[in-house]
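thread from #wetlab-drylab

HS: before we spend reagent money on co-crystallization trials with zinc ion, can we at least see a predicted complex? here's what I'd submit
DV: go for it
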Amino acid sequence: MSENKIDSRLIYNTKVFTKGRVQFGYVLIRDKIISEIGEGSPPKTLFKDTKSQFDCKKAFLLPGFIDTHVHLRDFKQSYKETLETGSKAAISGGFTTVLTMPNTIPPLSTVKNIREYFDEKKIFYCNIGVFAGVKEGFDLENLEKISKEGVFGIKIYPGDKSQDLPLKWIDGWKNDLEPEEFFASIKKVLSKFQNEYANWEKLFKFATELNLPILFHPELPRFPQVLEFFYKQGKKIALHEGKINPNLYAHHVAHPIYQNEIANIEMIILFLRKFHPDPKNAPHVHFVHVSNPDAIKIINTALRQEGYPCSIEVSPHHMLLNYDMEFPLESFAKVLVPLRSQETQQCLFKTVQENLIDTIGSDHAPHSLEEKSRKFEEAASGFPSLDFAAQIILTQFFNNKLKLEQVVSYLSTQPAKIFNIQNKGSIKVGFDADFVVVNEVNPYLIKGENAQGMQKWTPWENFELKTKIIKVFLSGTEVYDSDLGFLEANGKFLKRLIK
Ligand SMILES: [Zn+2]
């Protein structure tokens, strides 16, 4: 009995989300693991037999949230965020596990860099895993080594290419060439393209063999001149129409839905269907921060309904913010892919209500205030989100816009399933005791200065919340309390189980 007592904890008087529904009851933790889930009041003996007890006072007990799209920076960008500050933002916002993106400086595209990132001496509050970046040439030998470091997937950015194709392509299309030279250069370009194509095919096969999801930032790379041209066009229209945020509108025009976002998604779909006619042998493709309902329809029709393993992430800002809203500073809301129109945003929210997507990822991308206060065109893209993202989504539940099972599915269960994060994402016997205790409270407004991350500015300033994160448990230990603050930094580096 006394041995059990050492590591046992009782959480009771709570609305537990388990087996897809809410039940009033209690949860027993033994040795960091959920050992019992009961309905109603716990037997009296459990109060005596457990080392500690926590009365939830009828608040909800949900599985700790998992954000599979964050940029925790660190390394040379520690002036923006570190694992310590970023994980504080995560934990106080209800996220017990995050997977961070590889575009650090230096990037997480070599074994050496990943090992340095996973420095056990670092202090951090939530569990952290990483995605691998690709080096020029899709160096598969390098990727194979990286995959053994326990990365959760391979992230492809718009600028990632297997060769220096886009520039060569332009070189080939000089209009002052003699016909013969012209055809010779086209041939050269096409052979380059053949190689490019072959490298994509190799990457897809490689990911299939290793059972590693490939994540796509859905945008085609655009030449700076093209971006600038369309940005200026957009700005003209915005000023003519008297738009409240002419720069945000121009940013959207320069990164359009069809020619840029959907075009990239269609390219991936074509590659996938060409390289893997049998969906059973295809790699899992995950599209991050999809901004519009048409893209979702296309992915679901061309891939999901055909049996291809795929998933769609949307971000809270594309669900709830648009380029016609008021922000403390226009550039605070500058992000890629950009905020869209109110109509697109509302239709995207509907796809989330209709279960047409899989996960909600915050795309937490902190920058310094100085980097965001520059002239719009030069301001950095992205903003910090971990502090408020889950509470923004939970507020949609308390406002009857989303069901609780959808919130838990998008923020916990699906992220764990898609990325094979073991024993997390559900309140289930045998699973890790990662919980968030939340309640509905009177409406209050988001203030960036209350953020726990390093950056204290946000495009969500004055957005109304109705939730409070009361307590957070990580591996059965209380790590955060709304009154007491941070209690313990016991986050772990997570590694994907290699099959
Ligand atoms: Zn991102």
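DV: The two ends are 38 Å apart (CA to CA).
HS: ok that's useful, forwarding to the group
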